[in-house]
Amino acid sequence: MEVIYSEECLKHAPKHEILSGSAKPYFGMLSSMDKYRAALETIEIFFKESPQRLTAIKNHLAAAGAFTIRPPADYTMAPILRVHDTEFVRYLQTAYEEWVRQGGDPDGVLPECFPHPKLLAQLGGTKAWVETGKQGNNALSKAGLYSFDMSTTITGGYWLLSLLPDTWNAAYISCQAALTGAHRLFELSASSSGETPLGVYALCRPPGHHAGEDVCGGYCYINNVAVAAQFLIDYDLEKMGALRIGDASSADSAVGVNEPLPKRKVLILDLDFHHGNGTQSIFYDKPNPLYISLHGTPDYPWFTGTVHEIGVGAGQGYNINVPLPKATTTDDDYLSALQATLDSTSVRNFDANLVLVSLGLDTWHMDPIAGFGGLKSLATYWRMGEVIRTAVATRGRPVLFVQEGGYWIGLLGDMVQNVLDGFMGREMRQEEERK
Description:
Layout: E1 2-4, E2 16-19, E3 22-25, H1 51-64, E4 68-70, H2 78-81, H3 86-101, H4 117-120, H5 126-134, H6 139-145, E5 157-159, E6 162-164, H7 166-190, E7 199-202, H8 224-234, H9 237-244, H10 248-252, E8 266-270, H11 277-283, E9 290-297, E10 319-325, H12 331-343, H13 345-350, E11 354-359, H14 379-390, E12 399-403, H15 409-424, H16 430-433
Parallel strand pairs: 1-4, 1-7, 7-12, 8-9, 8-11, 9-10, 11-12
Antiparallel strand pairs: 2-3, 5-6
Helix pairs in contact: 1-15, 3-6, 7-8, 12-14, 14-15
């Protein structure tokens, strides 16, 4: 299986985040990186959404010998702007430079004032207060306008006396990794006999599923899986190839308002512990893709993810949330919920052509900021891949796995390999069967 990876994604490295009301470092010291058997209960500070997550997974897969690691191509801004607001994207590009120029802490852009709906409900609609927030081009007001929490610091640095937008560069390349994976999946499926499972893994960082059309949050800036899904809906192979070589003007004709789009159906299966509020919001009024989220409750992002959120307008019925109890969900509970969801009539009748998996690994019971209390077997991750390979709704479909969360670094590589091995039909490693 191909793995799309770039070290450019390591450059996003904030020093702190605000977690449970206090500033916590993104980087911690582990007493041992040798799995979870080494006195894990003594560890108080962990690596969170840090560059070490990416290198841990990449190094593990490289050593496994069954994966080909390749760099992402560049598909320009065109696919990103099919999903994200132009002004929001421009903000991500320039936020750090504006922040520092206006006297902000050079450690990074961090909002402190947010637009609360109850205070703004009578002010003439969203457009009115958004325009008010943009007045004066104030870095603080824009940070609150374009973020919904305090975990999404925007960083930069200096090179030859110039400011570099490290977060933007990493987020852009992270999205290009997902687009490269989508393109490769489409290329491989065009020449495949369909007899063996077909998958590609985009090792993305920063993650993406909390990012909305015009807002970042939850460590997410660009919604990688949403951009990749829209890319697969919008473009054929020829147009994808035109974008890859930089001919955006040619490729953009594929999504002209007067031209019919390809009839390609995409299913997004979000397996991150946290609800993908960003992905849900982007597609909430659309019948394609179909979005499914299995997530823990009660937990971040707190205000979304109920079973009653089914979509609106043309999108009604194309949003499926499966909230599971955080404290008590076991390995068997999780796998049963996944199987039942993919076997449901509505999901089978959608008849997807392609599947995108938002692969969060923070479901593990010892994850430092998430985790189901009873999900304690690494073999469960192999079985997740097996369910995706064998369920009627996803069987025989090409699958793009896009990395989201997961913060227990000592086991991230094992978890990823198990999911991918299960999907590809490789035997479960013996050591995993005992865990």
